[in-house]
């Protein structure tokens, strides 16, 4: 039996040796590819994105096609995300600003998307993330955009009105809320969370902690940080925060909708090239004195056969009862039909702004 074990062990050692060599060879080729790209670019705008979401998707699709087991495709994709993360970080001093502190859902979404090898910088507010990218302090930023049950994150929408960044990619994360505390359940008189967290757990709170005071925090992880230092308080946050801040889990999966998903946008200084399956996000205003102005603008997309995926609005800071409209549509801003539609919409709408085009990552 010992000889058999030794033989298998030697085989594994041999494979590991080859893997290390191949991984480093892959990293060198990737680095040479990036240098070749830098040398061929004629303008700086195209030289911004080390992280290319569309190319990453092609790699993962190829893994699914090549895989014959016994490892699952999901396991291989997770491994390759870390390989890509390590490779990207070796090419450039890459940094990503996220809505913190440590352990927030935005932080988790960033790690799922970029891997563990990247330099992550927590920011106290969503506006700080936009500022960090705009001023070049970080390469990218990641912000929460909307939740499947509680809707849009208005702070993110509002900042898009004045931002100079572009949406580079989207990513989705399943949200599982927990009730966390260092105190006994019966003694809790205060609950901290982000407004989205409260909104997603209303039924649980009304049923189990109806008398407890609900106090807004900047993020769910900040709520956990506060609850860890205050007796008789609890937080609605992730199970990751329980581990990070030394809290007990008093309730798991307490969100009202079990299929609770949040979408995040990754921000950069430019958008990606078409992947073949993209979305574009724009904003505009209309002349509110002209009847049918909004209808005329939206009809442009119908006339060009473009599907609209999301429509939202926010008050404008220009004057009372004046609104900014947000539209997410299928297609890339470089697609001919999208370009024609965007040119046409300028006849009916004002202040048209393209926020970015990015690969469609909607969960199947």
TrEMBL record:
Catalytic reaction equation(s): chorismate = prephenate; prephenate + H(+) = 3-phenylpyruvate + CO2 + H2O
GO annotations of cellular component type: cytoplasm
Annotated GO biological process: chorismate metabolic process; L-phenylalanine biosynthetic process
Top-rank lineage group of the source organism: Eukaryota
Pathway assignment: Amino-acid biosynthesis; L-phenylalanine biosynthesis; phenylpyruvate from prephenate: step 1/1; Metabolic intermediate biosynthesis; prephenate biosynthesis; prephenate from chorismate: step 1/1
Signal peptide (UniProt feature, chain positions): none
Residue ranges crossing the lipid bilayer per the database entry: none
Alphabetized CDD domains for the sequence: ACT_CM-PDT, PBP2_PDT_1
EC numbers on record: 4.2.1.51
Cell location: Cytoplasm
Enzyme category, top tier: lyase
PANTHER family: PREPHENATE DEHYDRATASE P PROTEIN (PTHR21022), PREPHENATE DEHYDRATASE-RELATED (PTHR21022:SF19)
Protein name per Swiss-Prot or TrEMBL: Bifunctional chorismate mutase/prephenate dehydratase
Provenance organism: Rhizophagus irregularis (strain DAOM 197198w) (Glomus intraradices)
């Amino acid at each position: 039996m010992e000889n058999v074990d030794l033989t298998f062990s030697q085989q594994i050692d041999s494979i590991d040796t080859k893997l290390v060599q191949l991984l480093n060879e892959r990293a060198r080729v990737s680095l040479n590819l990036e240098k070749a790209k830098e040398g061929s670019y004629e303008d700086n705008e195209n030289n911004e994105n080390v992280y290319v979401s569309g190319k990453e998707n092609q790699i993962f699709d190829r893994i699914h096609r090549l895989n014959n087991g016994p490892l699952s495709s999901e396991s291989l994709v997770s491994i390759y995300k870390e390989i890509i993360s390590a490779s990207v970080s070796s090419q450039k001093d890459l940094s990503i600003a996220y809505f913190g502190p440590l352990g927030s859902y935005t932080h988790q979404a960033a790690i799922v998307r970029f891997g563990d090898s990247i330099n992550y910088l927590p920011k106290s507010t969503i506006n700080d993330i936009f500022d960090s990218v705009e001023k070049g302090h970080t390469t990218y930023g990641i912000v929460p955009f909307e939740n499947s049950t509680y809707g849009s994150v208005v702070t993110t929408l509002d900042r898009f009105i004045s931002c100079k960044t572009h949406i580079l990619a989207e990513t989705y994360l399943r949200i599982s809320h927990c009730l966390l505390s260092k105190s006994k359940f019966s003694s809790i008189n205060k609950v901290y969370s982000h407004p989205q967290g409260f909104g997603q757990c209303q039924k649980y709170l009304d049923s189990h902690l109806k008398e407890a005071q609900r106090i807004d925090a900047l993020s769910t992880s900040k709520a956990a940080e506060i609850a860890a230092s205050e007796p008789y308080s609890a937080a609605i946050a992730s199970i990751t925060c329980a581990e990070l801040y030394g809290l007990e889990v008093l309730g798991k999966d307490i969100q009202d909708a079990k299929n609770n998903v949040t979408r995040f946008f990754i921000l950069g200084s430019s958008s990606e090239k078409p992947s073949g399956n993209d979305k574009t996000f724009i904003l505009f205003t209309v002349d509110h004195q002209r009847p049918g102005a909004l209808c005329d603008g939206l009809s442009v997309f119908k006339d060009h056969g473009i599907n609209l995926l999301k429509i939202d609005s926010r008050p404008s800071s220009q004057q009372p009862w004046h609104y900014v409209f947000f539209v997410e549509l299928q297609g890339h801003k470089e697609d001919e039909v999208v370009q024609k539609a965007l040119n046409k919409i300028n006849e009916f709408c004002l202040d048209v702004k393209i926020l970015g085009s990015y690969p469609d990552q909607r969960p199947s």
